[in-house]
Amino acid sequence: MEKLIVGILFLSVLSGSVAQTDMKGKAFIFPQESSTAYVSLIPKVRKSLQNFTLCIKAFTDLTRPYSIFSYSTRTKDNEILLFVEKRGEYMLYVGNSGVSFKAPTNLPDPVRICVNWESGSGIAEFWLNGKAFGRKGLKKGYVVGGDAKIILGQEQDSFGGKFDVKQSFVGEIWDVSLWNYVVPIKEVHDSCNNGNIINWQALIHEDRGYVVTKPKLWT
Ligand SMILES: [Ca+2]
Fold first, then answer.
1. I want to staple 165 with a disulfide (CB 3.0 to 4.6 A). Which of 35, 100, 146, 169 is the partner?
2. How far is the CA of 97 from the centre of ligand 1 (A)?
3. List the disulfide bonds (predicted).
4. Full-prediction pTM beyond 0.85?
C-alpha cells in the first residue's frame, strides 16, 4: 500500500500537480475571498490518529466565520476542524463533535495556534500565542480516520469539496505541523514546522486556484 502511495505521489510529482517543498520561511497567501482557492496537504503517512497535535500560524483581518484547518474523511467532514466563529472564539471539532475556546479579541495579529487531543481522556488543550486557554473534553475513546483530505483555505462539507465562500480563509497561513502524538505545547514554541504527519519543511501539497507562496512577513 505504501509503495502504491509513493508510486502515485511520484507520478503526480512528475505531472506537476503535487509538489514537495521546503516551506521554511514561506507562507501561503489566500489573497481573495473565493470558494475555489485552497491548498491540499498530503500527509507523510496515512494512519488513524489516537492522539494528535496541530500547530499553525495565521494572519487574517476577517471578522466573519472562517476555517483554518479542515481534515475530512469519507464518513466525517469535520473529522478534525479548526474553525473561528468570530474574533476570539475558536472551535475545535473531532469526529464531527466540537468544543469552543475563548481567547481575548484584541490579540495582535498574527496568531500562533496549537491544539492537542488525546483519545484516552478525550482532553483537548488549546494554546494561542504561547498562552494556554484551557482544556475541554470531546470524543473520549474515538479514533480519527487516516484516509483524509486536508485542506487549507476552505472548509469541507464533503470529502474534498462542498466549500462555502463565506467560510473561506482570506489571509496568510504558515508553519503548519501535525503530529500523531501529544506534544507538550510548552515545548513546541516556534519549532512548529517539523510534524511527523505534516512537516512544513518537507511539505507535500497541491495548490488550487488563486494561492500564492511568498516569504513570510512574520516570524
Ligand atoms: Ca464541514
1. 35
2. 11
3. 55-114
4. yes
